[in-house]
Please model this.
Amino acid sequence: MRYDIRPCLTDDDFWRARQFLRDAYLANGRRDRCWQTFRLDYWRWHGLENIVRRPLQEFLFLWEAEDGRLAALLNAEDKGEAFLNVHPAHRNEALDREMIHAAEELLAARTPEGGNTLTVWCHSDEAARQALLRDLGYVRGDWPEYQRYRPASLPIPDVSVPAGYAVRALGDTASDSIERERRSWVSWRAFHPDAPDDQYARDGGAWYRNIQRAPLYRRDLDLVVVAPDGAHAAFTTVWFDDVTRSGAFEPVGVAPEHQRLGLATAVMTEALHRLQRLGATQATVSAYSAAANGLYASVGFTDFCLLERWVRSW
Model:
């Protein structure tokens, strides 16, 4: 089959891509063989707007079949990697090969020595794609992504927070600007624990407004744990897709000075209760480290798919 290949140039292209991912997710039995729709939202409004700060068309490419329908998306969170999002009705070696060659041309990163490098993500049980990657000179890398999932019907652990702490939705009490700054600070503390505080860019949490623009964002599923002094101690944002009836946790974090108090478990279990009440039938979360995998397994995310890095440099 021949495909028309082009970058994502318009809002209509982007909304078609979102719908394609939703359809593919359902066709794949609600497993992350392709990105979920929330991940595209989060990447566009956070990854591109706040981090990469490059135009969408440099990182998202559409494969359109002869009947006019989307068959696949090629995308990257940044240069040097590629995700092959192929609808299961179109999975075949020829299309995979075509997309990998396109990724090498469009998405490779330059190395300090003046060469090129590319990571292609592939699931551990996709034998045919792994064989193709080997044939093309790729080798399996380290640091895989554990794509964990759990039915919403599983019992939710009964968890309480220490005295003086409280779990609530973002914005339930303070003004938006104060809340965004507190949420921004706890995110910095959670994900940059060893960085000097003077590296933190105090912008009133303005970057967080981009995340709140994402189509699937819900204030009632953006949860924080508030410490006795009013500071945010932990957080999670959950992205609920009412079409697939799935809720995805991205991100989850705890400030270093509030760790080992069960706050991550508490904020996640509160989110699971909220998902149940909304009618979700599944929840998902991704992890890379042993600590994160242990946490998520403890609240019922015991099943997972393994997404691995395959790397080539030339």
Notes: Residues 115 and 314 are 6 Å apart (CA to CA). The radius of gyration is 20 Å. The longest helix spans residues 11-27. The chain has a mean pLDDT of 96.
